[in-house]
Design a protein that fits this description.
The complex is a heterotrimer. By secondary structure, chain A is α/β, with parallel strands linked by helices. Helix content of chain A is 19%, strand content 30%. Helices cover 38% and strands 18% of the residues of chain B. The chains are: A alpha/beta, B alpha/beta, C alpha+beta.
């Protein structure tokens, strides 16, 4: 390990938007507790600029946290042509739901597609397992 | 021996499209091949690797004991919550409503934080709708708003909305149909709609974009605070104006970004004053719409009710608020996994109260449940009816035999044991 | 978007030194064979060996995905990408002609003559000799490629 580990990893604020994915959905039908479901769910998709800001490489793990919860997930590039710095995407699932605030304004509808969170390198920390999300 | 049940079609319960043209090959009593269903549907129909066990307090038991214990928990609770329903047949849903009535329960379904408001507006006649068959036969302008069927309902575009030949759409999609995608990101569906058909708007600005479309349709300058290219908005309003049979498929992206449905009502009114437009909600779970219809028939509301001397309704009776406020003291979850699908900050309370899960498979919720009762996989191991995303009733046939009871049978027996 | 890599696109990512280590006389010849999947990306030794080509090596590996079953028309289905939506089944002009009220109308194919059909959630090619890209009067039909949301179909 180099000197880097003693420096605080840069932390950035992001808006998270959740979406659906057919591969992840299919994996869920087979087993919620399977490796495939974790692999396809515990991912945050970022703009390449945000990946450099975090001083990480694609595939590294990151802490994603806010007042509601904290998970470690894998950081990937979104692959979208249009740049979207400051906005990240997570597939709908237990990992994204750990971050959805309970603040609904009394409407009964949580803000699944409008979540504020901070992201920071997990410096090699392991992805949070589905039963460890609690 | 492989038996090919040719021309014997079954219904897929992978999503609320309820595709009814599925053929299967059986080997003994298991499905070895599924024809025409999408990847998600096949995964659903072939079943899970982790079936739910019948257990009370983590110990394996027989169905009778588990049903008795479930009935005991529900009888002892002052305010039980009965939640799920989107993955149950209409017959099972009606039994769940009866249990809620008998136990004075909070009754809510997944539409409470999904398409509930849209379906309610449709059932109240506030939004003009049509069937998917009409879309296939007649629609020439198809708008996917905050919806990505390629990811959520894979066969949507091929079976009904864009690619198939229909009665008045004989020349194929390239000449006969225009597909538009309005979203916050370039989804897989947007890839099909192409750059000309795709409108990327900032998150949460759907209402403003609707207002801008209304302006454009009224021959006014379509202004937006996010400076969306006015020329492109006018191109879009021209397409919408010329539609002979238009349809908007409303996805969760649209539902979640609107504080109320007024901007959508205004847009639909305007569209119907210049052309002809319909709206269909992109319902997820295979019979979520059925749950809305059944609760509506019984109570006059589509979801979020509390039974007592009278039926109460409102956001405070939603699953989210009920759990957040810790207003319920036991819960029966049917075919749903709130610990996965609700915000953890809300759902965590379920682990503090007596919890019953009825499901074919192990879920996060079942892993924290006091009573777990496995049920047959609907559409494969049990039949019944369900309501498609467009409100059409579809009959499901049983394909293979199982020892497990259907959710309808389990709920009937819980009701009797109460 | 990348539906199918062109020879030029591939050539631009090669070392362009015509070193002949791969056994071909020029990098262009290698590019042509790579597109047809007659050689592998790894057959270009300098690309694998030399650090300065690393980015190009990676990019090429992404473009030239491994070939599963190549049919006689060169049609490949990348099974890992296919979601079984059936867009290609319904859009394919041969399917429409062979089965207008089944496949052509969005429903499960009812004819044995269809080329594309979804089985176990993934599209399979059959009767490929009927494909418009095949035979004497072949044309460059792209109906199945253009309608695929996940770029799971490719012709090589």
């Amino acid at each position: 390990m180099g000197f880097g580990q003693f420096l605080a990893a840069p932390e950035i604020k992001l808006k998270l938007i959740t979406y659906r994915d057919v591969f992840q959905d299919s994996a869920k039908e087979s087993s919620r507790f399977g490796e495939e479901y974790e692999k396809l769910s515990a991912v945050i998709r970022l703009d390449p600029k945000d990946i450099s800001k975090l001083a990480i490489k694609e595939g590294d793990t990151v802490f994603v946290k806010n007042g509601s919860g904290k998970v470690i997930v894998k950081a990937m590039k979104s692959g979208y042509e249009e740049p979207h710095p400051g906005i990240a995407y997570m597939v709908n699932g237990p990992w994204s739901n750990a971050l959805v605030p309970d603040d609904t304004g009394g409407t009964g509808v949580p803000k699944f597609k409008d979540i504020e969170a901070t992201v920071q390198s997990a410096k090699g920390g392991k992805v949070t397992g589905i039963l460890d999300i609690f | 021996m492989v038996v090919c049940l040719s021309n014997n079609y079954y219904v897929c319960t992978g999503c609320a499209l309820l595709c009814d043209d599925i053929e299967v090959e059986l080997e003994g009593s298991s499905l070895v091949k599924v024809h025409s269903a999408c990847r998600k549907g096949v995964a659903r129909m072939k079943g899970c690797e982790t079936p739910l066990e019948c257990a009370v307090n983590g110990k394996s038991t027989d169905t009778d004991t588990a049903i008795k214990e479930a009935a005991r928990i529900l009888s002892n609770a002052e305010n039980p919550l009965i939640f799920g329903h989107g993955n149950s047949s209409s017959q099972a849903q009606r039994k769940a409503i009866a249990i809620a009535r008998k136990t004075g329960a909070y009754l809510d379904d997944t539409s409470s934080f999904c398409q509930g408001p849209i379906i309610e507006a449709i059932l109240q006649g506030k939004l003009r709708t049509c069937t998917l068959d009409e879309v296939k036969d007649r629609a020439d302008v198809i708008v996917f708003w905050g919806a990505d069927p390629s990811s959520s309902h894979p066969r949507h575009m091929s079976r009904y909305s864009y690619f198939p030949r229909g009665k008045e759409r004989q020349r194929g999609w390239e000449e006969d149909r225009t597909a538009i995608c309005i979203d916050v990101r370039k989804s897989d569906t947007a890839e099909i709609c192409g750059n000309n058909g795709t409108y990327i708007i900032p998150p949460g600005e759907d209402a403003e974009f609707m207002d801008a479309l209304v302006s454009g349709l009224s021959n006014k300058v379509p202004k937006t605070s996010f400076d969306f290219d006015k020329k492109r908005i006018l191109e879009l309003t021209n397409i919408l104006k010329k539609a002979k049979f238009g349809v908007i498929f409303a996805g969760l992206g649209l539902v979640y970004s609107l504080k109320d449905l007024e901007p959508l009502f205004a847009l639909m009114d305007k569209l119907n004053s210049v052309s002809s437009f319909h709206l269909i909600p992109m319902v997820g779970q295979y019979n979520m719409r059925g749950s809305n219809h059944n609760i509506f028939e019984e109570t006059g509301y589509v979801n979020r009710v509390k039974f007592g001397t009278e039926v109460l309704h409102g956001p405070e009776y939603s699953v989210v608020e009920a759990l957040k406020e810790k207003a319920v003291d036991a819960a029966l979850i049917i075919g749903s996994d709130p610990l996965s699908s609700l915000p953890l900050s809300v759902a965590r309370y379920l682990t503090e109260i007596p919890l019953i899960t009825i499901d074919p498979c192990q879920t996060l919720t079942s892993s924290k449940s006091d009573v777990t009762i496995p049920c047959a996989l609907a559409g494969v191991e049990s039949g019944g009816t369900a309501i498609r995303m467009d409100g059409v009733e579809v009959e499901m046939k049983k394909i293979i035999e199982t020892d497990r009871l259907s959710d309808e049978e389990i709920l009937t027996r819980i009701l009797e044991a109460l | 978007m990348l539906t199918m890599a062109s020879v030029m696109e591939i050539y631009q990512l090669l070392p362009k030194t015509n070193c002949k280590e791969c056994g071909k006389s020029t990098c262009m010849a290698f590019a042509v064979d790579l597109l047809a999947r007659k050689v592998k990306v790894e057959d270009c030794l300098p690309l694998v060996r030399e650090e300065k080509y690393r980015a190009n090596y990676q990019k090429l590996s992404e473009i030239i995905t491994p070939v599963g079953d190549v049919t006689e028309t060169g049609l490949i289905v990348h099974e890992d990408k296919c979601i079984g939506c059936g867009n290609c089944v319904v859009a394919c002009p041969v399917n429409v002609a062979a089965d207008p009220f089944g496949a052509g109308s969005g429903k499960a194919p009812t004819s044995d003559k269809v080329i594309l059909k979804v089985e176990d959630g993934i599209v399979r090619a059959k009767n490929v000799e009927e494909c418009r890209r095949f035979g004497e009067n072949k044309i460059l039909c792209v109906a199945c490629i253009d309608t695929c949301p996940t770029k799971a179909i490719e012709f090589v």
